[in-house]
């Protein structure tokens, strides 16, 4: 779909609903285009990622820069400023799920002496809502508010396994299957099969999928009604522990922690 077509569709939506703010929707799309992997983006790149016209992206960036949320260090590329954290801080710090998950992860991390995280699904990404870091396993710093592509992570695959088939197909059709490491599962058919396996077995193992040095294991976090609302994982250095050893060490404690946390929701 071209930028012009999507802009036209969004504009028609705004015309149908007088309460819909087209400019706000575009600004939020521009903010969401920045990721830990792509922290600096040009107007052209943002236009391509958001499917918003370059002229509209330029106006969004001008406004966001005036509000102190983005800046351009070289006059060509743009990056986020710390002020954007205020947008999501109230949610990430204040929701019962995030608070309870942080306490559970602190306990689990101390028990296993490994890094543990919790995340929810945010579009095509996982959104970290809590984390306790024992080892620095990634080339990027992760914390509350960090996002990673769902298809390439253990928590993401758990969350994707809960989607209806039609929604899963739409999500996978949008995904850019980047080969982050030589071991990254980039074939969509193989990825579908892996997600189906995760759905059946109730956990996901991601062995050196997004970083050569990371092996992670994730399980679902259920609400009292039995719906998957988040995922929890344990990550270890791949050089010191393979996927089988990680499963033997962490699967039972991780499941117990997720069950105990579910009872608090």
TrEMBL record:
Pfam families: HTH_IclR, IclR_C. Signal peptide: none annotated. Keywords: DNA-binding, Transcription, Transcription regulation. Residues 21-82 form the HTH iclR-type domain. Residues 83-265 form the IclR-ED domain. PANTHER family: HELIX-TURN-HELIX TRANSCRIPTIONAL REGULATOR, ICLR FAMILY, TRANSCRIPTIONAL REGULATOR. This is IclR family transcriptional regulator C-terminal domain-containing protein. It comes from Pseudocitrobacter cyperus.
């Amino acid at each position: 779909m071209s930028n012009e077509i999507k802009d036209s569709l969004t504009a028609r939506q705004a015309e149908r609903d007088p309460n819909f703010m087209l400019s706000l929707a575009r600004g939020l799309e521009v903010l969401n285009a920045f990721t830990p992997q792509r922290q600096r983006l040009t107007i052209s790149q943002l236009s391509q990622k958001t499917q918003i016209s370059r002229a509209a992206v330029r106006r969004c960036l001008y406004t966001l820069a005036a509000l102190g949320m983005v800046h351009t260090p070289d006059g060509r590329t743009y990056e986020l400023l710390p002020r954007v954290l205020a947008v999501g801080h109230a949610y990430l710090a204040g929701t019962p799920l995030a608070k309870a998950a942080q306490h559970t992860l602190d306990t689990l991390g101390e028990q296993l002496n490994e890094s543990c995280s919790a995340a929810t699904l945010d579009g095509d990404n996982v959104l970290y809502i809590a984390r306790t870091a024992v080892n620095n396993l990634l080339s990027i710093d992760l914390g509350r508010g960090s996002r990673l592509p769902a298809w390439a992570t253990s928590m993401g695959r758990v969350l994707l396994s809960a989607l209806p088939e039609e929604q899963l197909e739409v999500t996978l059709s949008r995904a850019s299957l980047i080969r982050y490491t030589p071991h990254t599962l980039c074939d969509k058919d193989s990825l579908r099969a892996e997600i189906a396996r995760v759905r059946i077995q109730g956990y996901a193992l991601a062995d050196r999928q997004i970083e050569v040095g990371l092996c992670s294991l994730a399980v679902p976090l259920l609400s009292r009604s039995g719906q998957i609302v988040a995922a929890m994982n344990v990550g270890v250095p791949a050089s010191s522990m393979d996927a089988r050893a990680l499963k033997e060490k962490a699967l039972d404690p991780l499941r117990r922690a997720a069950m105990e946390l579910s009872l608090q929701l």
